[in-house]
Amino acid sequence: MILMLLVIGILALGVYLFAWPQWRRRLALRQSFPEQWRTVLEDLVPLYRRLPPPLQRQLEHHVQLFLTEKPIYGCDGLEVTDRIRVTIAGHACLLIVARPFSDFDNIRSVLVYPGAYWVREAVSDGMLEAQEQEIRAGESWDEGKVVLSWDDCMAAARDPDGPHNVVLHEFAHQLDHAGGVTNGAPRLDSTSARRWQAVMSEAYERLMRDFDEDEISWLDPYGMSHPVEFFAVLSEAFFQQPRTLRRHEPDIYDILTRFYRISPAEGFRPVD
Ligand SMILES: [Zn+2]
Q1: CA distances from 33 to 36, 39, 87, 119 (A)
Q2: CA 252, CA 244: separation in Å to the nearest integer?
Q3: How far apart are CA 180 and CA 115, in angstroms?
Q4: In this structure, what CATH number is given to the domain that contains residue 79?
């Protein structure tokens, strides 16, 4: 009897862990994509309009799954409307538009503040600990939480060719976390990981020297603060300023093309 209950328990756990998420996703995708959501994508996710039609449909599928699975909470009194939800999901899912939605399996929730928000942090010099306040537009936590400022999301929505997109930035960090360690590289097979390491390390060191000599104007300097930020800032540039990135750093553009499986500089052409 105990053995039978154990077997039933293991089967139930297997269904819950493996079959239920797939079934829930299939069910979500049976719903047609709401026309009001498509209008939000067209208005506030400008890169959606530049995607080839099959990728537009794929982005819509990802947005449906994202909004089914990832709760979005308003902070400081912000009421989370469909406009906010679809804009955030649309930008986040752009990163994985040519990749499987399972890349976002580790994401648990999104918190949205009306604008940039203050964070109090303990800092230590090894001897003394002090509280410091810092203003932020967004952050990404290893346990699958993303925090965003809606004002900054809107700034990104209005400037699809600019260097900044807080949603792309923070969700690129989540792809980095998905690799198991947050180290400036997403999950890759061993051959791709070796090439990634070689290209990114060489570029990071070279660009650090150029920054010291004030020779760079095309890349957000925040990307040089840490290799983890390098990947997030390069991901923003890859989607929003792809031709600039390709002209200055063709090898980086190439490895990002292979990872994201699209070439934004060529009309978001899918890459095998
Ligand atoms: Zn960052």
Answers
A1: 9, 11, 14, 37
A2: 12
A3: 31
A4: 3.40.390.10
In sequence order, the β-bridge partners of residue 93 are none
- Containing domain of residue 235, as a range? 31-270
Indicate whether 23 belongs to any domain: no
Provide the 10 A C-beta neighbour count for residue 24: 13
Provide the 3-class DSSP secondary structure of residue 220. coil
Q: Could you tell me the distance, in angstroms and rounded to a whole number, from the CA of residue 68 to the centre of ligand 1?
A: 26
What total of structural domains would you count in the chain?
1
User: Is position 181 within any domain?
Assistant: yes
How close is the Cα of 231 to the center of ligand 1, in Å? Answer: 9
The answer as to whether 18 is a domain residue is no
For residue 19, the CA-to-ligand 1 centroid distance in Å is: 34
| Residue 1 within any structural domain of the chain | no
Do the beta carbons of residue 37 and residue 66 sit within 8 Å? Answer: no
Distance 45 CA to ligand 1 centre (A): 21
Give the pLDDT confidence of 119-134 residue by residue, as tens digits.
988 877 777 788 888 8
Q: Which two tokens stand for residue 270?
A: 């899918």
Q: What's the gap in Å between 138 CA and the centre of ligand 1?
A: 8
Ligand 1 centre to CA of 173 (Å) is: 7
pLDDT tens for residues 87-117? Answer: 999 999 999 999 999 999 999 999 999 999 9
Separation of CA 46 and ligand 1 centre (Å): 22
